[in-house]
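[09:14] KT: can someone run the structure on this one? pasting the chain below
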Amino acid sequence: MSKGKLFILSAPSGTGKSTLLSEVMRRLKGLVFSISHTTREPRCGESDGVEYHFVDRATFLAMKEEGAFLEWAEVHGNFYGTSRLAVEEQAAGGADVILDIDVQGARIIRAQGGVDAAYIFLVPPSLSELELRLRRRGLDDDETIAIRMANARTEMAAIDEFEYLIVNDDKDEAARMFESVILAERARGRRHLDGGQLRPEVLP
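[09:31] RB: done, structure tokens below
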């Protein structure tokens, strides 16, 4: 069984990552989503172990000191981290693992080296559209939206650090593009089977 690949998806808050991920995972088999740990409070409708593993700050910091996270970052005053063990076990089982992490986390993983990952950046069609989406979802007050917009400007300056760029103007088109990236990376991976020689059972 071949080892799965990591797909790292980053985007400013409010760009539509959750909707995009749900659609792509519905369309493609062999994908799993890495559930992050966070110290933020659950939002209405969220459940522990589904959207996130919700932990207190003391627990998170203890895990960080133990080296339990592949990457971690502090965003909007809360900590977020990706379990190293969970990702390794999922990939070892042959699944392609999607990580929904911010620019800081993507940089940390890239800097480690030796991680087979594809880096994808999702952007809104414009900053004005992003602000409109943030207001429409009704989760944040004006001060929080202003912070998110400031962070979005900073994050979008990191576009060149990613291999793929997807503009989420039309959600169906964005999902098709993300799906195409995954399929292309899977096809590239076939070249490395058994040192470049395809086994008879995997030949067309």
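[09:33] KT: thanks! The two ends are 18 Å apart (CA to CA).
[09:34] RB: yep, looked fine to me
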